[in-house]
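Q: I have 127 residues here and want to know how they pack in 3D. Can you give me a structure?
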Amino acid sequence: MRNRLQQADIEGECFSRGLIAMPGLKAPDTAVRVAGKFGVDLSTHVSQPLGQPDIDRAALVLVMEPAQRQHLIRISPSSIGKVFILSQPSGGASIPDPVGQDETVFMAVYDEISGHIEAWLQRFGVA
């Protein structure tokens, strides 16, 4: 999403956090390789857990599964209007976590994520 916003000359901050992330872990090699094919550089990415300050500063929080949305709303009720499932514009189905899978699975999941990002951008009038 960051790349697409930059291409559209729209200023915005995009950041990645995890709900059960071990701080400081590098992205798996497969993730780095596949993300590169989508124009995303994960070579310097390290995992960071999502904290309340992150939720507070975000205008939009996108999660991969309905259970993650429910969890965030439970721990931060004031975030209910800005936490959405990434696939929501396309129906709201869970997006599988490809970690531990082969490159084919990563490609399929990243392709799905890319499509959902485009749907959000269209919703924002950025397409």
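Q: Anything worth noting?
A: The two ends are 11 Å apart (CA to CA). The chain has five helices and two strands.
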